[in-house]
Structure formats: structure tokens, C-alpha cells
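Hi support team,

I submitted a single chain yesterday and got back a structure, but I'm not sure I'm reading the C-alpha cell output correctly. Could someone confirm the output below corresponds to the sequence I sent? I've pasted both exactly as they appear in my results page.

Thanks,
R.
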Amino acid sequence: MSDTLSDVLRAVRLTGAVFFTVDGKGQWVTETPAGSEIAARVIPGAEHVIDYHIVASGSCWGGIVGEPPVRLEAGDVIVFPQGDSHVMSSAPGMRGVASLATYTRPEAQLPIAISRDGGGSGHAQLICGFLGCDARPFNPLLATLPRTIHVPAADDGVIAQFVKLALSESTTRRAGGECVLARLSELLFVEVVRRHLATLPPEHRGWLAGLRDEQVGRALERLHDRPAHPWTLEALAREAGMSRSGLAERFAHFVGVPPMAYLIHWRMQLAASYLSSTAMGLAEVAERVGYGSEAALSRAFKRLVGVAPALWRQGKRGALAD
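Hi R., thanks for writing in. Yes, this is the structure output for that exact sequence:
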């Protein structure tokens, strides 16, 4: 299960960044615009931005604009996987000013320290960051995550260690701190996803629930381990220890698409990742993702993604250069 999750996180190019520490006193509020509005500013080249906040000390409230917020205590983490505009505040029902200018990447070393002092008692300290990833052509993890994930502080101390290290790196500003914080963001997100998976009810459907299922998880593992293999439903069913019809039904029940359709989508995501992040030629990309020729890959890619591979690569490089 963990290998398949790691495989997806690599292919969708998960990238972390920590931008702010917030020191809130008395009555305070911060409001973050939708991820689609700030993606190019906070993580250039990212198609999608996930926001998260760690409560380093004190307590506060956090939630999507227009929806009831949740109470957050020291050590809690709240993540907004779909990039919704959201509010962090000292009390429920507050609204701030979602200014895009705040999210212009500065020349100074990150993170930026923000102070909010509305007078009165109460104090909270937050570490606020972002995670960039690809949403297209296929991100099965993103599609299965809710709009909000709240992970309370746990007794095992794992999240607490993340918080401690992130707080240290964000306040001492040592050489290499920005890189350390970025990697911490990614590790924290993986831990949040793991804990979210552990809380899913048995009847839950979706890609994550499929990972947890013994047979479907085994089938996903095989497809991710050998994406270029000439898989058939019969061969995959043997690997999963099921009949063809049994695997087809169970796989679609959890993942939402039949196994061979999933494989096609996953191959296109791998191809898109190679095109975006390497100088690999189209023939080599085609071989790595299970297509016998450039022409076969080009046809499949254009049919699913909507543009030819060369145009996709050109567009991605242009986005990174902007």
C-alpha cells in the first residue's frame, strides 16, 4: 500500500513549501484565497495547490469559507486538499481580507512572519504552508481526498515531532531551512493521508479505500509496479487471487473504473510526468509506459489528455518559465 501511494506522489510531482508563520493574539483572523488563484505565486509550475496549517501552540478555528469551522488545538493539523478558500481565526464566524498581494513570493528567506494582534487575551501560533502537485491528466489520490482533513494531535508523538522541527526551522532561519521546511511539508502530508486512511469507515469507496482492500490493493500494486507490462484482466486477476469477473467488479466498486481503464489513465500520468520533468524522447517514454511506438502513445495521449505529447511538454515548460 505504501509503495503504491509513494508511486503516485512521485508521479504527480508533490512539492512542498512553507510560506508563513502566524502569531495571533486576542481577536485575529487570516483568510486564504482559493488555491487556483495563488498557485502560480506560491509554487510556480504547480497545477494544483493544497493548503495546510499546523497549530504550533494555543488554539484557534479553521474552515472553508461559508462552512462551519472546526476547533483546533496545539499539535493539530488541518489540510484543505481541494484548495478551497478558507479562514483561520481566534473565534468561529470571522472573515478576513483574502489579498493576492500577500502571496507574492518574496526575495527574502522564507517563511514570512505575520503578526495579528486584535487585542484581548488568547494566543495562537501557526505554521502555514502549501503543497503543489499535478492534477492532470490523472491524480487518483487528489480525486479521493475530501475538502478538509483535520488530524488531531496524537499520543504517538509523530505529528508533534513534525511540529517541533518545523517550528525550529521557521524561527531560527538557518542555512538550508527553506529546503528542510519544503521536505517536511511533503512528509507531513503523507502522514496526514495515512491517518485519514486509517479513519475511513469499512464501507468507504474511493482510491484510498481500494489501497486498503487486500485484493484491489494487490492489483493496484501490480499495475503500479509494472505499468509497461502487457496486462490483461485475466493475468491481473491471477495476481490478485480472484476471478476475472470478481476483480472487475470489486476494483470498479472501490476505484470507480475497471482495472484496464485505470491502467490507461495511470500510463498517461506517467507519460505526462516524464514529458514534464525529463528530456526523455517520445520513443523512450512510449516504451516505459507500455506503448509500442511513438504514434501509439501520441494517439492515446491526445485522446485522453486532449493535446499531443509535444504540446503538453511545451506548455509545461512555458508554465515553469513564467
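A quick pointer for reading it: The first strand starts at residue 15 and ends at 25. Let us know if anything else looks off.

Best,
Support desk
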